[in-house]
Design brief:
GED, mainly alpha, 152 residues, GED_dom, Dynamin, Dynamin-1-like protein, 4 helices
């Protein structure tokens, strides 16, 4: 019952957990995260078999903050890469294959008559352009005749 024996036993690691210590099983009930998303990993047990020195405690806190920062950066990178992956695989695939699909549907023989028929609006514009061309050619011919008659 010497005091040195109890001091030594408190400093050494005991293989069996004491009644105040919890076994090293994951705590599924407590899942916290620094941000809104759900943390699916169980929390690491904080109980140890020996007391950490203040320096070791600070080092553990720094390491914990660094790991959390690292995972936040990784999460942000994944969030940024998802739209890029969608663009790469889905949109570019559609862009590359859309023309061939449209051409395939365009060259069906039963659609030729409908596709080659001129729309009424375009026919009207074509007739107006042809009339304008005739009028401009006639005006050019008249201007050419006027120049020739005034020259002599």
């Amino acid at each position: 019952m010497g005091s040195t024996k109890t001091d030594n036993s408190s400093r050494t690691e005991s293989p069996e957990p004491t009644p105040t210590q919890q076994p090293s099983t994951p705590q599924h009930g407590k899942m916290t995260s620094p941000v809104k998303p759900v943390n699916l990993l169980p929390e690491v047990p904080t109980t140890t078999s020996r007391r950490l020195s203040p320096k070791e405690q600070r080092d553990c806190e720094v390491i914990e903050r660094l790991i959390k920062s690292y995972f936040l950066i990784v999460r942000k990178n994944i969030q940024d890469s998802v739209p890029k992956a969608i663009m790469h695989f889905l949109v570019n695939h559609v862009k590359d294959n859309l023309q061939s699909e449209l051409v395939t549907h365009l060259y069906k023989h039963d659609h030729f008559k409908d596709l080659l028929q001129e729309s009424e609006h375009i026919a009207v514009r074509r007739r107006e352009a042809a009339e304008m061309l005739k009028a401009l050619q006639k005006a050019s011919h008249i201007i050419g005749e006027i120049r020739e008659t005034h020259m002599w």
